[in-house]
Amino acid sequence: MENGAVSQSEGKDPSGFLSEIIGNSVTVKLNSGVVYKGELQSVDGYMNIALEKTDEYVNGVKRRSYGDAFVRGNNVMYISAD
Amino acid sequence: MAAPSTSQLLPLELIDKCVGSRIWVVMKGDKEFSGTLVGFDDYVNMVLEDVTEFDYSGNHTKLAKILLNGNNICMLIPGGEGPVAA
């Protein structure tokens, strides 16, 4: 590790993880506590997320379903592989 | 005088040393996570494995593998197992 640079070549960093879980079923939790479960279609560098077959959970209770959903990245707390 | 560069450990280098080991993440607000650090980026977005999410209400949620947004991270404790062990 020269010049204090952080080594992230293992493919285990955030972008490596994202490419690994594209197409999988995921859980996305927002800062508000609302949870979206669906099939991860795509993510970008802002953590904007496109989901398919999405279910929305508020306080653990299923509220609504969406065929396609876009979540703006600034609201995302975490993306979990199911 | 600045310390010799060999004795200076930059914050992100400390986190880099934690890759592969358990880490305790304290968020802004009341939420906390503990898990095995798999990787992270310049924004300190982090990939964690075998994660426990600690709620403000004391609830625990187990998660296999997550990408945690660095935006709301406040503090990182290497080797920490969360508020239970502390």
What does this structure look like?
- The complex is a heterodimer of chains A (82) and B (86).
- Chain A is mainly β and 82 residues long.
- Helix content of chain A is 10%, strand content 51%.
- The longest helix of chain A has 8 residues, at 14-21.
- Chain A starts with 13 loop residues before the first helix and ends with a strand.
- The mean pLDDT of chain B is 90.
- In chain B, a hairpin with a 4-residue loop joins strand 1 and strand 2.
- Chain A binds chain B through residues 1, 4, 6-8, 10, 12-18, 27, 31, 47, 73-74, 76-82, and chain B through 10, 12-13, 15-16, 19, 27, 31, 38-42, 45-47, 51, 63-69, 71-72.
List keywords for this structure.
heterodimer, A: 82 residues, mainly beta, five-stranded antiparallel β-sheet, 1 helix, 5 strands, disordered N terminus, B: 86 residues, 8% helix, 45% strand
Q: In percent terms, what proportion of residues of chain A is strand? A: over 45%
Structural class of the secondary elements of chain B?
mainly beta
Largest sheet of chain A: 5 strands, antiparallel
* Count of alpha and pi helical runs of chain B: 1
Radius of gyration of chain A: 14 Å
Q: How would you spell out the order of helices and strands of chain B?
A: HEEEEE
Largest sheet, strands/sense/barrel of chain B:
5 strands, antiparallel
What's the helical proportion of residues of chain B?
A: under 10%
Q: What strand line-up does the widest sheet of chain B have?
A: 4-3-2-1-5
Q: Given the C-alpha coordinates, what overall shape of chain A results?
A: globular
How many distinct helices of chain A? Answer: 1
The N- and C-terminal alpha carbons of chain A lie at a distance of 34 Å
Family (chain B): Belongs to the snRNP Sm proteins family.
Domain Sm (chain B): 10-82
Main location (chain B): nucleus
Subcellular location (chain B): Nucleus
